[in-house]
Amino acid sequence: MAQRTDVTRALAEWIVDCDIAKIPEAVQQEGVRTFVNWLGCAVGGARHETVDRALDALTQFSGAPTSTVIGRGERLDALHTALINGISSHVLDYDDTHLKTIIHPAGPVASAALAVAERHGISGRELLNAMIVGVEVECRIGNSVYPDHYDRGWHITGTAGVFGAAAAVGRLLKLDVQKMVWALGLAATQSSNLREMFGTMTKSFHPGRAAQNGAASAYLAAAGYDSSNQGIEAPRGFANVLSTKQDYNEILGGLGETWEAALNSYKPFACGIVIHPTIDGCIQLRNETGVGANEVEAIELRAHPLVLELTGKREPKTGLESKFSVFHSAACALVRGDGSPTAFTDEAVNDPTLIALRRKVHVTTDPNVHEASVDIVLKLKDGRTIEKKIERAIGSHEKPLSNAQIEAKFRGQAAPVIGAELCDKLLATAWKLPSLGKASEVTAASVPTPVQLATA
Amino acid sequence: MAQRTDVTRALAEWIVDCDIAKIPEAVQQEGVRTFVNWLGCAVGGARHETVDRALDALTQFSGAPTSTVIGRGERLDALHTALINGISSHVLDYDDTHLKTIIHPAGPVASAALAVAERHGISGRELLNAMIVGVEVECRIGNSVYPDHYDRGWHITGTAGVFGAAAAVGRLLKLDVQKMVWALGLAATQSSNLREMFGTMTKSFHPGRAAQNGAASAYLAAAGYDSSNQGIEAPRGFANVLSTKQDYNEILGGLGETWEAALNSYKPFACGIVIHPTIDGCIQLRNETGVGANEVEAIELRAHPLVLELTGKREPKTGLESKFSVFHSAACALVRGDGSPTAFTDEAVNDPTLIALRRKVHVTTDPNVHEASVDIVLKLKDGRTIEKKIERAIGSHEKPLSNAQIEAKFRGQAAPVIGAELCDKLLATAWKLPSLGKASEVTAASVPTPVQLATA
C-alpha cells in the first residue's frame, strides 16, 4: 500500500461519529457477551495474589475514589481502577480472544471504559457503544501489523489495547475529532509490552496498564494536551516503528460495515488459546473412554509449532506456569476432565498423578497443522490406540460458546469469589447493560457485603 | 556477542551494591552539576502551557500529596510529581544530553528520584547516589542499542529513561537484587515513546512518563509484583524487540570503573543539540562582524544529514516548532545573538526580520561532517565572505559549561519564573545537595510565596 497520511484522522472521525444507532444489532449483542465474559473474569481474578500485590503497591497513589474494583469493593480513581480491573480480568488467562491476532480485547477496553463511566455517571448504553468502538479500533490496529508485530515479541493485547482504551474513553469524554487524533497519538507513544513477561505477574499488568494509559491519553487530549496528527501511520509512528508490516486497509477498509468486534470469542478453558484443542480433545477422550491415569502408555499430540513455542513448559512448578504447559493441560484434561481455573492451581501442578502423566505427553510439531487444530493419539498399556482429531475447539469462532455456556463459565469463576447469590444478581445485571441508567449498577452489584460473604 | 542470560541480574546486582563511597569524587561532582542544571530547567519550564494542560488533565487522579511540583508548589503524589517535573524539565529543550546517544538523562531519573526522596524524607546524599546510578544505567542501556534503536524511531530518552528511573527509585526503596531485577523487567515492558511526537507537547511527556513508570516499576517490585528475570536480554526482551543491535558489553563492561554519568553535558542553547554548533558559530560571527540582518546575502551551512532530519523545519509557525528549525536558529543567533528560551518564542518566530533572514539560510548535508560540527559561510551583500568552522560547540563534552556558566543558565531560566531572590536561594541550596539532611529542602526552596512573586 502506498504511504497514507490520513489513517489516524480517518479512524478518529469514525470513532467520534459511531453512535450506537450505527452499530448492527448482532454486533451489539456480541458486545454484551464480551462484557459479561469480561466481568466474570474480573470477578474470578479479583482475589488473586497478583491483584493484591498491585493494590499493595499502588493504592497510595490513587486519587479521590470514584470507581470500584470489581468483585472486591475498594474504591480508587478511574485510572487506577482501570489498571486493577484490567489485571484481574486477565490474571486467570480466561478472558476473550480475537483469534486473528490473539488480542484479548476486553481487558484494556472494558476496564478503562467501565471505570470512567462510573466516574462520570454514564449509562450502560453509552458504555456499550464506547466498548464496541474501542474493541473495533484495537482489533483493526492489531490486524494492520499482525503477525509480524507479534512475532517480533510484542504482547499485542497491550500494544493494540492502549489504542482501544483511548478510543473508548475518548468517546465517553465526547472528544472532538482533533482531540481524538491526539488521544490516539498519546496512545501510540505509550504502546509497549513484551511477550517475555509471559508466565509472570507482569503479563496481567499489560491489559491493565493499556487500559490506564489509554484512558489517561483521552483525559490529556480532552485538556488540550496535543500530540502527533499521524501517530499510527507516520514514518516514526506506531506501525512503522513496531512492525515491518503495515496494512492500513485493515484499519480503514469496511469501517462501520464489517465488524471485528463481532468476531470475539470466549475461552472455555483458563489458559493459552493454543492449548484449547488439546484440552477439548482430552476431555472428549476421557468422557468417551473413562480411562484412568495408570492405564495410559502415552499421549501423542501433533500440533502447530506455535503450541510448543507458547506453551512448551515441560515441568511447570506453579499454577501460573502450568497455564503455559500443554503437557500439564493434556494430563489434567484426561484425568480430571478439567480446563477451568481449578486445573491450573499449585495443587494441580504438584499432583503426583498429573506429574507422572504429563511426562507421557509427547508433542510433534507440524507447520501444516492449523494453529487451532490438533491430532491426538492416546496409547493405552493394554495395546489399544484411540485417535481424536480436533478441527476447531469449543469456544472458537466456529464453535462459539452459547449464552448459557458463558453463564456457566461466569458462575464457575465468580461464585467462589463473591458467593452464588450475588453472582446470580450480578449476572442478571450484566446482561441488562444496554438498558442500565448508569453503568455503575454493574460495579455496585459485583461487591459482596460481609453478610453475603459469610453465607456464600 | 554470544547470547547472554545474566545481563539484567548482573546490572541489578551492581545497582544494589553501588553505594556513594564507590562513586569517584569527580563523578559525584558531575552528578551535582547534572542536578543543578536539571533543576533550573524544571523551574524554567514550570509555567509552560504544556505543564498547565497536563496538570489540568491529571491532578484529579493524584493520590495524597507528598511531593512538590518544582517552581510552582502544587503538591501531588510522588508518581504524578515525577511526571510533571519530567515534563517541565524537558519542555524548553534545554536540558542535559548524553552526547553518545542523545539521551537527556536527568529528566526521567532526577524527576523520579526527587519526588520519591521527598515522599520518604530521604537525604540529599542518598538522592545523589540514586540519581548517578540511575543515569549510569540509562546511558549504558542506551549505548547497548544505539544507534539502531534511535534510527528506528524510538525516542531513547523515554525508552532508556524508564530503566534509569526504576534503578534510581529502586535504590531509594532499598530493593534487594531479585526485586531490582523485577523492577528492571517492569521497566522493560513499559519502554516506549516515538520520535514522531517531536514538535508536539507529547515529546515532553516522554521523560515525565518514563520517570513515573520507572518509579511505579520500583514500587510494584517492592510489593513483590514479579516480572521476567531477563527483561533486557531475553529473546523477547527489550534489546531484541526494540533494536537490531544488542551490545551487552556496553551495559556491563567496566561497570563501576568507567562512568557514562561523567560524560553528561549541558545545553547552552534551548533547542535540539544538533543545531548548537550553528548557533555557537552564528553568535561568534555576530560578535566578530557586527553585521545587521539587511547586510546578509546568504548563510550557508555544511552539516551532517541528521541536522536537517531533526531540525529541518523551514517555516516554523510557533515557538515550539522553531526549536526544530536550523533556519530560524541561525537567523536568530546572527541577528540577536540569542539561543536561550527567548530565541524560541512565538514572538521570535514571527519577527519579520528573522523570517526574511531564515529564508537566506541554506543547508548542504554531508555525512563526512561530524554531527557535532558545522562549517558556516556568511555571504554579505557587499561581496564579503566570512567563514566559521565550528569543530565542537560550547556545551559539548570537549567544551563543557563551567559552573559559572551553569549558574548563569540557571538564573536565565529560573529568575523570570520565581524571581531573582528565590532563584539565588534555590541555586545555593541545589549546589549543597550532597550535604542536605533532606532532599526536599530543594523542592521547598523552589516554590515562590505570593510575596516573593510580587517583588520579583
TrEMBL record, chains A, B:
<dbReference type="InterPro" id="IPR042188">
    <property type="entry name" value="MmgE/PrpD_sf_2"/>
</dbReference>
<dbReference type="InterPro" id="IPR042183">
    <property type="entry name" value="MmgE/PrpD_sf_1"/>
</dbReference>
<dbReference type="InterPro" id="IPR005656">
    <property type="entry name" value="MmgE_PrpD"/>
</dbReference>
<dbReference type="Pfam" id="PF19305">
    <property type="entry name" value="MmgE_PrpD_C"/>
</dbReference>
<dbReference type="InterPro" id="IPR036148">
    <property type="entry name" value="MmgE/PrpD_sf"/>
</dbReference>
<dbReference type="InterPro" id="IPR045337">
    <property type="entry name" value="MmgE_PrpD_C"/>
</dbReference>
<comment type="similarity">
    <text>Belongs to the PrpD family.</text>
</comment>
<feature type="domain" description="MmgE/PrpD C-terminal">
    <location>
        <begin position="269"/>
        <end position="432"/>
    </location>
</feature>
<dbReference type="InterPro" id="IPR045336">
    <property type="entry name" value="MmgE_PrpD_N"/>
</dbReference>
<dbReference type="Pfam" id="PF03972">
    <property type="entry name" value="MmgE_PrpD_N"/>
</dbReference>
<protein>
    <submittedName>
        <fullName>MmgE/PrpD family protein</fullName>
    </submittedName>
</protein>
<feature type="domain" description="MmgE/PrpD N-terminal">
    <location>
        <begin position="10"/>
        <end position="249"/>
    </location>
</feature>
